[in-house]
């Protein structure tokens, strides 16, 4: 599920709407399983599932879904060998299954509850199970609480909701503002921390959710870094980075990046063990030069690490239809296997 605009649409009071969710992908696709958008009968929408090649067809299906009150499965087979009209000509080239659901009643209530859990820093899983032509929903209120599966009905899809990951930038120097801005755009809640209060202005870091001043010892205590956090040391002050590094290694964040040259990294880690969560020097080796390009190289690595963290909760396979005219097809969730773990 997308955050931001889609959540805003879910929480809007009144008005009919349809939730469209990608539940299976085979081959290349613009978005992955779990991506969602909200469609309204007036033609308005929030979120995207494709570069623009699927949305018009999905909008055309909204009135029928709302009229029936039933979910609908839509298949788009855009592989060039299956359909020379769609496929690579529109830049997708994969097979996609999309679930359309009336956004009302229990589904809306459970999505709002899931959003509340995310705001509180907790995760959740929304299971959809087939019950004839309808879907039964079950919200598991913490990812780690998911136990043995004793629920009746065939699992159609499980949407995993994880809190927006926190990225802590220790160091508010010239490299930090472009990295903060870019990280916020790719789905991180960014906290900028530094011992120099004067560098932590809102003008320099408008995208930061928090700006915290303090010594490494004070910051380590206040930030309470955990296993789901991402941390980057970028103060360019060897002593300060070392002090913070000594506190971050035992905290075991999911990702710990250290900015600087290979030689500087060796000095920083002298006498310390480099654990698997450490990326030092931080970022992908793309020949970056200057704060903006360095931010791009780090952001790319963050995307890869975040995707790896999420991969464990994508629980979908595919048995979607083939050979539909123009690469598309329609079906009802009538108990026939469509997407399972």
Automatic annotation (TrEMBL):
Alphabetical list of InterPro entries matching this protein: MoCofactor_Util/Proc, XdhC_CoxI, XdhC_Rossmann_dom
Organism: Cohnella candidum
A family per Pfam: XdhC_C
Span of domain XdhC Rossmann: 167-302
Chain ranges of the XdhC- CoxI domain: 12-77
Gene3D superfamilies: NAD(P)-binding Rossmann-like Domain
Name of this chain's protein: XdhC/CoxI family protein
